[in-house]
Write a sequence for this structure.
């Protein structure tokens, strides 16, 4: 009797065939990160105590220490040290401290998130779980931003609170108390009563009329009123507390810079497979090269349309609140404040497009590098 073999039966000596189909409800192959993946990345970063202490010291510690010292000095020696708040202190801390160190902190956190699994030898273990490598990369973006954005927000809140509640209620100049918050008419009236303080001694936007050799020479009331009208923008923004609208715009602008710095640091470290070199290069860029890239003094003739999309800082500076002055000592605005007139001109639409394109481009390149890296 002849036995006919079953063609569908597997060979007893062969290994069972692997089943590649995913079970229902298994989304490990999806490139969209799950909430659990984001939470895991968040916990991995938060458990790095040394890193967290450094970030807190850079973002919250430095401005808080500065303000505490100013508050104590004003409390114990009020005649020698003025109030700790005001618009001048606000702009100095935002542009000179929080903007720079917020960028460095966000970039450092992004570089750590971009290569922490490689440094810890955990990349292979993450890959063998079957999770999408793209999802593993994308999960690091919200995880890191959930750390750095609140840090910068806390530091910014401390600065705003001190600058508002400790702002000067009056300004003593040449042994005369200058009232704050006056309207243009009120300021002109006050100037007519104190003409000696208006020309050259009090800051204003323009040269001294007639180039008087002695600025304290008594002046006619009419001339003092005209001079007061000219320097009113200086008076309005220099010695008063920061306006609420200005603080909101400055806060959103800082968070935008933090997001860009984090995404760039994440991509850069993922591309290079380490964090030390990207951190050093980005610090050098932020402190040395960035101010020159923003200035119109280095406009490239006939290539300005190429300079706009290649320098993302131009797009970020386009949204800079008035009077903040980020470009390190370039003075164009009233009261010796910086404005945007020294920047390469750029429209809002172009600025938004450049920021979006760079963020998407960096994310795609970082995800691609992780997807193609050998495990």
């Amino acid at each position: 009797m002849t036995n006919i073999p079953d063609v569908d039966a597997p060979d007893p000596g062969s290994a069972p065939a692997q089943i590649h189909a995913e079970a229902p409800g298994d989304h490990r192959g999806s490139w969209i990160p799950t909430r659990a993946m984001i939470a895991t990345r968040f916990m991995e970063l938060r458990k790095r105590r040394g890193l967290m202490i450094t970030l807190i010291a850079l973002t919250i510690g430095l401005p808080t220490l500065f303000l505490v010292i100013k508050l104590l000095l004003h409390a114990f020696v009020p005649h020698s040290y003025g109030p700790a708040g005001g618009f001048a202190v606000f702009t100095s801390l935002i542009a000179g401290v929080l903007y720079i160190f917020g960028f460095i902190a966000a970039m450092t956190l992004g570089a750590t998130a971009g290569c922490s699994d490689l440094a810890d030898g955990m990349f292979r273990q993450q890959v063998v779980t079957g999770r999408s490598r793209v999802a593993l990369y994308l999960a690091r973006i919200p995880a890191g931003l959930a750390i750095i954005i609140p840090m910068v927000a806390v530091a910014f809140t401390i600065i705003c609170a001190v600058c508002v509640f400790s702002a000067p209620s009056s300004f003593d100049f040449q042994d005369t108390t200058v009232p704050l918050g006056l309207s243009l008419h009120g300021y002109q009236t006050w100037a007519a009563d104190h003409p000696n303080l208006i020309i050259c001694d009090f800051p204003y936007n323009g040269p001294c009329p007639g180039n008087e050799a002695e600025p304290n020479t008594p002046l006619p009331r009419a001339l003092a009123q005209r001079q007061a009208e000219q320097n009113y923008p200086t008076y309005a923004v220099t010695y008063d507390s920061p306006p609420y609208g200005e603080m909101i715009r400055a806060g959103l602008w800082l968070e935008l810079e933090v997001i860009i710095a984090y995404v760039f640091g994440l991509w850069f470290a993922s591309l290079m497979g380490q964090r030390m070199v990207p951190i050093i290069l980005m610090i050098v860029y932020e402190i040395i090269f960035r101010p020159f890239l923003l200035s119109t003094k280095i406009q490239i003739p006939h290539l300005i349309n190429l300079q706009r999309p290649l320098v993302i800082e131009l797009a970020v500076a386009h949204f800079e609140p008035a009077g903040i002055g980020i470009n390190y000592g370039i003075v164009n605005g009233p009261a010796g404040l910086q404005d945007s007139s020294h920047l390469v001109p750029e429209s809002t639409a172009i600025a938004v497009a450049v920021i979006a394109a760079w963020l998407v481009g960096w994310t795609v390149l970082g995800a691609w590098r992780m997807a193609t890296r050998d495990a």
